[in-house]
Amino acid sequence: MDHTAPPARDTSAVIELRQYTLHPGRRDELIELFEREFIEPQEAAGMRVIGTFRQQGKPDRFVWLRGFRDMSSRATALQSFYGGPVWKANRTAANATMIDSDNVLLLRPVDAQSGFVLPAQRPSVGSAQRATTIITATLYLLTSPVDADFLRFFDSQVSPVMAATGAAPIARFQTEYAQNSFPALPVRTGEHAFVWFAAFATPAEHQRHAAELAQSPEWRERVAPALAQRLASPAEELVLEPTARSLLGHLDPPGYTLERTGDVHDFDFLAGGRWIMANRRLKLRGVGSQDWDEFPGTSRATLHMGGVVNSDENQFTTKGWTGMTVRLFNTEKRQWAIYWIDSRKGVLFPPVFGGFEGNRGEFYGEDTDDGRPVKARFIWTRLGADTARWEQAFSYDDRTWETNWTIDLKRVRE
Fold first, then answer.
1. Cβ distance 215 to 40 under 8 Å?
2. How far apart are CA 170 and CA 200, in angstroms?
3. Model confidence over 340-350: pLDDT tens digits?
4. Which of 15, 57, 307, 392 is deepest in the core (most CB within 10 A)?
């Protein structure tokens, strides 16, 4: 079976978040021009076009992201592109669609693990593919620069609530304060920005997150007031629909690989105490359904053989059945194999293979679903000491993933 290269973390040290206001009815015209003419020449000049988006609810807004190795190479790359033949040939047409292109935040990743994980290839020119994914960019303008205290607050207070309501952060950035190395393109100054991103499989998933967050007592009564004290202005959420050629938002084809590796301590965080699980599981898979079954569960994990093996037993009391996960670490391949056992069938399901990079783990394998061959994917996200999220997705067509089961976990220390 042919496998595409796995997604990898983007290494851009400088990011531009660009928000364009366009003349009414001109957005699709700009997107068509941009995706046909501007992506490859910009990347040939030394930058990376990370994502291109329609902003939901604002039909005249085009939002995009591009990255650079550093500020010095940013100046060189921008001079090469904007002084080159492609921009000169198309700038009149592009500029004719725009009212304002100066709403630009210059950002840098919070740390080495804070950038985007992106697919190795983007859809080709002329692709008609439209992702169902929703990407959100949440902008916090702070009263002071991002520091260790704010990052502890975000990681221990904000991020767990977001993950528990279905919006686990996938990337985090803060203001890059270096002087604009290409003054011909203005950027916003005098602000202390912190910007984090989340991804949702469908618009319905984003709507569910928004509803659950609004109803969360922890968010309303404790976390949101503490956050508000740190903000210079109200938080802003950009709800973004990836265009056909956007890297961010398109993990299709799925990035299936059996070569992802990890570390023997990847799952050590599961040991110690009992986990409360909030499950959401599709009632019907592979038919485009959005009818979810929600039910509770509990889990307890145990490490064996110095962590080379670990297991957990999952109790789903309202369902009347249990499950067990057994994970084996191949010390030669530096790779986990994860097996699932269901008390209803009493068989060992085929494994998925992979490991963690930072706080995100991806695991892939092959299985069947009601007799249909599928590719399977598990995603684990560690969200602090006592919060985590697990997702299962199947691909029936080797092109798209359908997330069919999510579990938000919270530890109860005993």
1. no
2. 11
3. 999 998 889 99
4. 15
